[in-house]
């Protein structure tokens, strides 16, 4: 014991000397992963008790830069673990394993209203993670990091099982492209919201989880008109999924967001074609406003601050499991308190699974996607406006992570 008391100071001196002479090492594991998978970021070979900043940087396909950062202090071994250690400041605080992703924001000086969305799902989202000496708050690209590591985040699993379809809307006919491994698979029709265009990244991610997911484009950005939304268009898209040789015809669902969620409910309640009792309809919706149950109708009324959807249907006709995701801080539409009341009144409340998130906003996306409280939006008049979605960054990010796990569990249980 006395011997160790004498040697201990020498050992500590040796460690300090090594930290000063050996270059810091930053590792990300796994370096290639799906966007909904966790990673571990560790920095080693730092002097004990050193203040450092972990920083993430991504250049999106529009050439804009996005960043996040956290302030850490190395432990007695000269190590920082983003998973296990506290961030004392930055774009996130506390123990946040994925804070370097979900708290990303445009770098200072970027234009207003940016939104980060992946267009080419066949390529990864590249994120460069670096460590800097001290607690840095700006000018990251103007100084040299102590160490860096490039990580790949994929929507379509590279080299793994993936099946997703693309459907382009072109003057009332479809162009279908698909890639798949041997099946058959349960199928999903993926219907996005009022922004229009072909949005593929959620379908690609669902494909990476073993679902034949079809990304449906039903109007071009800024061109939505009520006359364009013909009911049989969506029934046709549903049948494309159901009748595909690599899809289980009795295991097909619909996944909707925003306007797409309203269309999903409309199809579940009113379609004369989609009447297979064991078909699942999945509804992932932030908010919809339900009108009188008198007739089928969809009316799209844009204003500067919000979009109001009025849907009339008979919820008593819904005879399949339904999941509804509600956001209390949705600043875009009225929240869906009505969904539970309507299904209870119709006698099919037992089919409803409802997720409720008090401080989340309208755009509930796959996990670790940056939060957007307000972004640019193209109206049907082609006018560009800033649309308020709502939500607080940390609670919204927690809602995305929690809801995605429960959505996948719901799909696995029912499909």
TrEMBL record:
<dbReference type="InterPro" id="IPR016662">
    <property type="entry name" value="Acyl-CoA_thioEstase_long-chain"/>
</dbReference>
<feature type="domain" description="BAAT/Acyl-CoA thioester hydrolase C-terminal">
    <location>
        <begin position="230"/>
        <end position="275"/>
    </location>
</feature>
<dbReference type="Pfam" id="PF08840">
    <property type="entry name" value="BAAT_C"/>
</dbReference>
<feature type="active site" description="Charge relay system">
    <location>
        <position position="330"/>
    </location>
</feature>
<feature type="active site" description="Charge relay system">
    <location>
        <position position="258"/>
    </location>
</feature>
<keyword id="KW-1133">Transmembrane helix</keyword>
<dbReference type="Pfam" id="PF04775">
    <property type="entry name" value="Bile_Hydr_Trans"/>
</dbReference>
<feature type="domain" description="BAAT/Acyl-CoA thioester hydrolase C-terminal">
    <location>
        <begin position="312"/>
        <end position="415"/>
    </location>
</feature>
<dbReference type="InterPro" id="IPR006862">
    <property type="entry name" value="Thio_Ohase/aa_AcTrfase"/>
</dbReference>
<dbReference type="InterPro" id="IPR029058">
    <property type="entry name" value="AB_hydrolase_fold"/>
</dbReference>
<dbReference type="GO" id="GO:0047617">
    <property type="term" value="F:fatty acyl-CoA hydrolase activity"/>
</dbReference>
<feature type="transmembrane region" description="Helical">
    <location>
        <begin position="279"/>
        <end position="300"/>
    </location>
</feature>
<dbReference type="GO" id="GO:0006631">
    <property type="term" value="P:fatty acid metabolic process"/>
</dbReference>
<keyword id="KW-0472">Membrane</keyword>
<feature type="domain" description="Acyl-CoA thioester hydrolase/bile acid-CoA amino acid N-acetyltransferase">
    <location>
        <begin position="36"/>
        <end position="159"/>
    </location>
</feature>
<comment type="similarity">
    <text>Belongs to the C/M/P thioester hydrolase family.</text>
</comment>
<feature type="transmembrane region" description="Helical">
    <location>
        <begin position="252"/>
        <end position="273"/>
    </location>
</feature>
<dbReference type="InterPro" id="IPR014940">
    <property type="entry name" value="BAAT_C"/>
</dbReference>
<protein>
    <recommendedName>
        <fullName>Acyl-CoA thioesterase 16</fullName>
    </recommendedName>
</protein>
<dbReference type="GO" id="GO:0006637">
    <property type="term" value="P:acyl-CoA metabolic process"/>
</dbReference>
<keyword id="KW-0812">Transmembrane</keyword>
<feature type="active site" description="Charge relay system">
    <location>
        <position position="362"/>
    </location>
</feature>
<dbReference type="InterPro" id="IPR042490">
    <property type="entry name" value="Thio_Ohase/BAAT_N"/>
</dbReference>
